[in-house]
Structure formats: structure tokens, C-alpha cells
Design goal:
The chain is built from ten helices and 17 strands. By secondary structure, it is of the alpha+beta class. The protein folds into three domains: about 90 residues, Rossmann fold (3-Layer(aba) Sandwich); about 60 residues, ATP-grasp fold, A domain (Dna Ligase, domain 1, 2-Layer Sandwich), CATH 3.30.1490.20; about 170 residues, ATP-grasp fold, B domain (D-amino Acid Aminotransferase, Chain A, domain 1). Strands 9, 10, 11, 12, 13, 14, 15, 16 and 17 form a nine-stranded antiparallel β-sheet that branches. Homodimer.
Length: about 375
């Protein structure tokens, strides 16, 4: 799908990271352990990733001069969030390799394009329809049925930009509340559980998947992830194969997450792809302390042109718990918990729904 630019970094070279949130922070920390430098570009002066790098650029993504100067200072560019403005990615790609390839963003930034892409691969998704008006929404509901989920095609995350439509709802009111002219209606999936696969792929096509992770959301925000997911081995293998197929079709370089629903049907459970995240992912944070190589190190290895690691899980079960909002103020409660490691992101004032840190807990393997 993409013409991947080959990169071969050496210790001392510099990686440019677009985005200064906690994912960028943890990428930079992983790179430092491998002897690689990082420079972060973010418009937010309070970006927590700025705290762990020597050089940072605080400028808007529309600032072409700042982007060019940033590109001149680095050897390869990556990103911690998928909504990188297309114009900014184009400016950077003309000067330095951007990995994963910027063209992948055209697919993953648009929910409809993403669903079409997955469907063309013969991989299952919830039934869906393009929606551009109240009239087309009513037509989509006739085809798909209710309940259903209406989502903006772009810029939605943590439950934002979406609404569940049920029988008796005011369709016109729901459409207006979303404040968009481009949406997608998806059939409501009666899933048994939500899982994700964190996969890494090198430019040579090597794919390494972490253990399938089971995810629990509260108020549309990921709260707890557990690895391995409580699913049959055959289903876990199917989920990893789906993620690998997607990574290969994208000619992907780096780490991506594929979120899936597990359905129970007459012939046994099966998986449907919900979303693709072309970056390191919250549900992979358990790998920082629970695996032989973390998702962040795998991403750095992939974009640096280094061999990927073989992920081996530490312990029998690894749990990751997000500290959201005011929960961060109770961080000391975790400091003496056996097997627990706390990660604090260095953000500012806690507020509802804001991810401030996370805890990983490793349950040692039982003696046979």
C-alpha cells in the first residue's frame, strides 16, 4: 500500500516525535535506553514529553518554518497520535522519512475509509453505512437496525464524537448534536468482551505480536487491561493473524493496535475489528513492566531499522490500570503493593476523564 523508506539508525541519531503527550514521553524514554536521542514537536507548552528530551519544538502544526527546522534536526520522524494534520505530514515527508508512512493516516484518520479497508481484506467488522444528512441517517437505520452507534468519521476518541441511537430517539436531534456532515453508522455489537492486539512490523516485513489483551472501559475510557485475554488459544491466534494481515496490507513500519470485539455465536466465539490505531496504544502499557520488550521499544526498533524483539510475558497475568483524574492523587497507595509499578505522566491539574498515569501489576507464574 505504501512505498516504505528504509531507515537504519545508529546510537546517537535523533528521532523526531510529533505530539507531546504521555505516549510521546514513553517513546522518548524507550529511545534513550537504546542510545537514541529524541526531539518532540508539539503546540502545547505543557506537553509532558518535553520533560524527558533535551530538544523540543513548541509550535503549531501549521507553522511550515518550524516544521522544516524540526525536520532538519532529526533523522526519522514518527508520531504519538493519528490525527497529525495532512499538510504537516506532507511537509515533513518531503524532508525526512515519516514512519509509519503518512499515507496510512489517510486510511486510519477516517472511520469510513478504515472500515472499507478492513472489509476489502475479508476481515469482519460490524455492519456500517456512510451518513451525511438526517435523510441518509434514516436510510442507514432502516438497513442496519437499532440500536446502532453514530460516529463522526474523524477526530473521535475516548467516546467523544459518537452517540448510541435507540428506538424512540429523536433522529434529527441526535444528528444535530454530533455537529458534523460526515459520519458513519455502525450496528451495535452485542460483544462478549473487548480485546486488542498490539503488533509491531519491521520494514523487512517481520511481525511480532504481544499477548492478546482484554480491555474494560468505564465511561467510554479504557480503565483496565489484562494480558493474556481470557479467550481460547485458537481465537487468540485468529486475532493475532488479523492484526498481522492488517499490518502487512498497510506495509506498516512500527507498532499498531487493532481493537476487536469477541462475539459468541452458534459456532463459537469470533472476532470483529472495531478500530485500528496506527501508534503505540493505551492497552499496550502493560508491556512496560510485563514483557521482555515493551511496545514503546518495539516501535523505536522498527522505525530505527533494528530487529524486533520476541515479546515474552512476565508472570501469569499482567494488569494495567489507568489512573484517571483525581485518582492520581492516591499514587502513594500503590508504592508498597507487591508486583505493582506506577507510571506518572507529569501532566498538570487532574480533571475528569484525563489520563494522569497508570499502574502495572504482574502476577507471578504459579509453580507447576
Amino acid at each position: 500500500m505504501t512505498g516504505t523508506k528504509r531507515v537504519k539508525l545508529k546510537p546517537g541519531d535523533t528521532i523526531g516525535i510529533l505530539g507531546g503527550g504521555q505516549l510521546g514521553r514513553m517513546l522518548a524514554m524507550a529511545a534513550a535506553r537504546l542510545g537514541l536521542r529524541c526531539q518532540v514537536f508539539s503546540p502545547d507548552p505543557d506537553s509532558p514529553a518535553f520533560d524527558v528530551v533535551l530538544n523540543a519544538t513548541c509550535a503549531e502544526y501549521a507553522d511550515v518554518e518550524a516544521l522544516e527546522l524540526f525536520a532538519n534536526d532529526v533523522d526519522v520522524i514518527t508520531y504519538e497520535f493519528e490525527n497529525v494534520p495532512a499538510a504537516a505530514a506532507l511537509v515533513l515527508d518531503a524532508r525526512r522519512p515519516v514512519l509509519p508512512n503518512r499515507k496510512i493516516l489517510e486510511t486510519t484518520q477516517d472511520r469510513l475509509a478504515e472500515k472499507d479497508f478492513v472489509t476489502r481484506l475479508g476481515i469482519g467488522t460490524a455492519a456500517y453505512a456512510d451518513v451525511t444528512s438526517v435523510a441518509s441517517l434514516r436510510e442507514a437505520i432502516v438497513r442496519i437496525g437499532l440500536p446502532a452507534v453514530l460516529k463522526t468519521r474523524r477526530f473521535g476518541y475516548d467516546g467523544k464524537g459518537q452517540a448510541i441511537i435507540r428506538e424512540g430517539d429523536d433522529i434529527a436531534k441526535v444528528w444535530t448534536s454530533l455537529e458534523t456532515k460526515a459520519a458513519i453508522l455502525e450496528a451495535f455489537v452485542p460483544f462478549e468482551r473487548e480485546i486488542s492486539v498490539i503488533a509491531a512490523r519491521s520494514a523487512e516485513g517481520q511481525v511480532e505480536c504481544f499477548d492478546v489483551t482484554e480491555n474494560e472501559h468505564r465511561d467510554h475510557i479504557l480503565k483496565v487491561s489484562r494480558a493474556p485475554a481470557a479467550i481460547p488459544d485458537a481465537l487468540a491466534e485468529e486475532a493475532r493473524n488479523v492484526a498481522g494481515k492488517i499490518a502487512d496490507a498497510l506495509d506498516y513500519v512500527g507498532v499498531l493496535a487493532v481493537e476487536m470485539f469477541v462475539l459468541a455465536n452458534g459456532t463459537g466465539p469470533k472476532v470483529l475489528v472495531n478500530e485500528i490505531a496506527p501508534r503505540v496504544h493505551n492497552s499496550g502499557h502493560w508491556t512496560l513492566d510485563g514483557a521482555s520488550v515493551s511496545q514503546f521499544e518495539q516501535h523505536i526498533r522498527a522505525i530505527a531499522g533494528w530487529p524486533l524483539g520476541k515479546p515474552v510475558r512476565h508472570g501469569e497475568v499482567v494488569t494495567m490500570t489507568n489512573l484517571i483524574g483525581e485518582e492520581i492523587n492516591r499514587y502513594q497507595e500503590w508504592l508498597t503493593v507487591p508486583g505493582a509499578t506506577i507510571h506518572i505522566y507529569g501532566k498538570g491539574t487532574p480533571r475528569p476523564g484525563r489520563k494522569m498515569g497508570h499502574i502495572t501489576e504482574v502476577l507471578p507464574a504459579r509453580d507447576k
